[in-house]
């Protein structure tokens, strides 16, 4: 049995523009959704609160995304550190608002385009392959406030214009693309990816699924454009992946877990990979009063322009019980599940389940038979800087080791896996809480929740460990 990582496996790290760049009002950049999201625990609450005002209130909140870790000015330093680790690939996103500041302009912003030219050139200088997410939780604020986000069909054409502009500009520099980050995550927090909070519980599902349809059409148009402009590129979808387990073998709980998993892991992927709405979704629509406005040609477009691969984030599994009480719910996980008695949790309450990664990779590959790409996996934790400046994050090394072992087992199972990218290879602003203290990086950044810090970069113990993992192509983990 071959338990090795294949030659050419894409080891590296992953980030998002709004969580690392800063420079929020430089280079003619427009305001994005991320620029009005405050830091701290309030963020999660605001993400689900109808009537979110989309206004900046610096007397009440701080906005860590505004400076983030200042990758906008320090990208050369950071990319040199990635190269020192041996990265084969670096996942990043393009900020839509750097290219079209309001999302509605007829011509792209040259200053924004030129910035990413410089970043891509720096990556290529070290032989690092860019893996680019077209939209990663940073919709132009104008489109959220004035258009109602992805509920509005007009965003389809605006997104296609944006996608075509970056394909044309970077066709010689980027060969791996993904359309929407964690597209299925909108089932739980639509504000960041769809640009709205549902108006009410009664209209919630109608709003969400109509917005999904618009994103599916837009994604298909982006795939079509990519194939026309960069025929040798690969373009994928990107989902938040989490296997769903029944709490026990009670058939009611098994069925409930199946229903939850199909909606979470398979609905968006079915449309983007298989090119059609899955049969099970009609019952979901019927039970939740959803009637989609599907225009002529939409379904044919979706069918014809399916993705080349599935990019996925993996952080946790979900355990489901049909009739759960409030006391049984686990608060830390992103999803509304119950505590799994066999798993421990991170500092932020996310249950740690390396075997779950192997399970979901097998489930996805069994269903779709297209290459998979782990484009996010990592541990958010409190890190301590010792008096000598060292950071001994053995807990992170243990987490990553166990997940890489699970990925290797999945490859031995027959899964076609393109690569493994550590989320937050450098400390960044947490998307869910807007905190710096929730650190993911293999590189420490001296920046703190109160806004203080020098932004100095330091190598953690995990930096050197991952450097060796890559150097040995996963032989030594």
Topology:
Blueprint: E1 10-14, H1 17-20, H2 42-46, H3 71-85, E2 89-93, H4 96-99, H5 110-125, E3 129-135, H6 141-147, H7 154-170, E4 176-180, H8 190-194, H9 204-229, E5 234-241, E6 244-246, H10 251-274, H11 280-287, H12 298-304, E7 309-314, E8 318-320, E9 344-345, E10 351-352, H13 354-368, E11 372-376, H14 394-412, E12 417-423, E13 443-445, E14 457-459, H15 461-471
Parallel strand pairs: 1-2, 1-12, 2-3, 3-4, 4-5, 5-7, 6-8, 7-11, 11-12
Antiparallel strand pairs: 9-10, 13-14
Helix pairs in contact: 3-5, 7-9, 9-12, 13-14
Organism: Geobacillus jurassicus
Enzyme class: hydrolase
GO molecular function, one term: hydrolase activity, acting on glycosyl bonds
What does this structure look like?
- The protein has 477 residues and is of the alpha/beta class.
- The chain has one domain: Alpha-Beta Barrel (TIM Barrel).
- The protein contains 15 helices and 14 strands.
- The chain has helices at 17-20, 42-46, 71-85, 96-99, 110-125, 141-147, 154-170, 190-194, 204-229, 251-274, 280-287, 298-304, 354-368, 394-412, 461-471, and strands at 10-14, 89-93, 129-135, 176-180, 234-241, 244-246, 309-314, 318-320, 344-345, 351-352, 372-376, 417-423, 443-445, 457-459.
- The strands form 4 sheets. It has an 8-stranded parallel beta barrel with strand order 1-2-3-4-5-7-11-12, surrounded by 5 helices. A two-stranded parallel ribbon has the order 6-8.
- A hairpin with a 5-residue loop joins strand 9 (344-345) and strand 10.
- The longest helix has 26 residues, at 204-229.
- The model has no long low-confidence stretch (mean pLDDT 95).
- The active site is at 376 (nucleophile).
- One of its GO terms (molecular function) is hydrolase activity, acting on glycosyl bonds.
- Its EC number is 3.2.1.-.
């Amino acid at each position: 049995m071959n338990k090795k990582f294949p030659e050419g496996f894409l080891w590296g790290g992953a980030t998002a523009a709004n969580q690392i760049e800063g420079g929020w009002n430089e280079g003619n950049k427009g305001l994005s959704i991320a620029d009005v999201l405050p830091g701290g625990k309030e963020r999660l609450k605001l993400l689900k609160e109808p009537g979110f005002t989309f206004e900046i209130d610096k007397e009440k909140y701080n906005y860590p995304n505004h400076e983030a870790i200042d990758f906008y000015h320090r990208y050369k330093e950071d990319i040199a550190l990635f190269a020192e680790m041996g990265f084969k690939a670096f996942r990043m996103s393009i900020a839509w608002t750097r290219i079209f500041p309001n999302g509605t302009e007829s011509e792209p912003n040259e200053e924004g385009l030129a910035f990413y030219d410089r970043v891509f050139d720096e990556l290529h200088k070290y032989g690092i392959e860019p893996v680019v997410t077209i939209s990663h939780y940073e919709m132009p604020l104008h489109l959220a406030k004035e258009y109602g986000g992805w509920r509005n069909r007009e965003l389809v054409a605006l997104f296609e214009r944006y996608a075509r502009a970056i394909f044309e500009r970077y066709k010689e520099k980027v060969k791996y693309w993904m359309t929407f980050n964690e597209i299925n995550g909108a089932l739980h927090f639509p504000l960041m990816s769809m640009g709205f909070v549902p108006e009410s519980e009664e209209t919630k599902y109608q709003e969400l699924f109509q917005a999904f349809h618009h994103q599916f059409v837009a994604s298909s148009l982006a795939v079509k454009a990519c194939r026309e402009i960069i025929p040798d590129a690969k373009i994928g979808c990107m989902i938040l992946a989490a296997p769903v387990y029944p709490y026990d073998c009670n058939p009611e709980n098994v069925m409930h877990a199946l229903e939850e998993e199909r909606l979470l892991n398979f609905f968006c992927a079915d449309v983007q990979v298989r090119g059609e709405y899955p049969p099970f979704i009609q019952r979901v629509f019927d039970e939740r009063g959803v009637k989609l406005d599907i225009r002529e040609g939409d379904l044919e477009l979706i069918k014809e322009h399916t993705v080349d691969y599935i990019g996925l984030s993996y952080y946790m599994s979900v355990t489901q019980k049909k009739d759960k009480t409030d006391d049984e719910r686990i608060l830390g996980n992103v999803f509304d599940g119950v505590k799994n008695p066999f798993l421990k949790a991170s500092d932020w309450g996310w249950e740690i389940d390396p075997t779950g990664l192997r399970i979901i990779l097998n489930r996805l590959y069994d269903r779709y038979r297209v290459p998979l790409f782990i484009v996010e996996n990592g541990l958010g934790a409190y890190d301590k800087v010792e008096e000598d400046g060292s950071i001994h994050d053995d807990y992170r090394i243990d987490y990553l080791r166990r997940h890489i072992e699970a990925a290797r087992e999945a490859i031995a199972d027959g899964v076609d896996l393109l690569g493994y990218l550590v989320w937050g290879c450098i400390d960044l602003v947490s998307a869910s809480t807007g905190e710096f203290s929730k650190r993911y990086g293999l590189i420490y950044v001296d920046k703190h929740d109160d806004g203080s810090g020098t932004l100095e970069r330091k190598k953690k113990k995990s930096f050197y460990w991952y450097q060796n993992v890559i150097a040995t192509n996963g032989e030594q983990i």
